[in-house]
Amino acid sequence: MKALIVLALSTFSLAAMADEVSNNVDAHVPVEQYNYSQHLDIAKVISTSEIPNVCEVVPARMTYLDSTGQKHILEYRVMGNGCSNG
């Protein structure tokens, strides 16, 4: 029973360390500001930030991999989800 508990705790700590490592990797990726003349090489979108429920232009971020597998973080501006058409 003790071995099972040790195994479970080890698995949990390894998962926590892996999450910490992935967060540290993102800390070293510079945030690029998008402009309309920029050519984007997006092979796979990893994540996008949630758009707030406000009626104004807000910053958003997208994390993606390019065709060479390099990770990028792109910041751009979007209209919030809080506007009504009525």
Query: How widely separated are the two ends?
Result: 63 Å
CATH classification, class level:
Mainly Beta
| Strand elements, count | 4
Low-confidence stretches: none
Question: What's the architecture, going by CATH?
Answer: Roll
Number of helices: 1
Briefly note the structural class of the backbone: alpha+beta
Mean pLDDT: 82
**Strand order of the biggest β-sheet:** 1-4-3-2
Order of secondary-structure elements: HEEEE
Search tags:
86 residues; alpha+beta; Spermidine Synthase, Chain: A, domain 2; 4-stranded mixed β-sheet; 1 helix; 4 strands; flat
Describe this structure in words.
- There is one protein chain.
- The protein is of the alpha+beta class and 86 residues long.
- It has a single domain (2-79), classed as Protein of unknown function DUF2790 (Spermidine Synthase, Chain: A, domain 2, Roll).
- The chain is built from 1 helix and 4 strands, in the order αββββ.
Secondary-structure map:
Layout: H1 2-27, E1 31-33, E2 44-48, E3 57-65, E4 71-79
Parallel strand pairs: 1-4
Antiparallel strand pairs: 2-3, 3-4
What would you say about this model in short?
By secondary structure, the chain is of the alpha+beta class. Helices cover 30% and strands 30% of the residues.
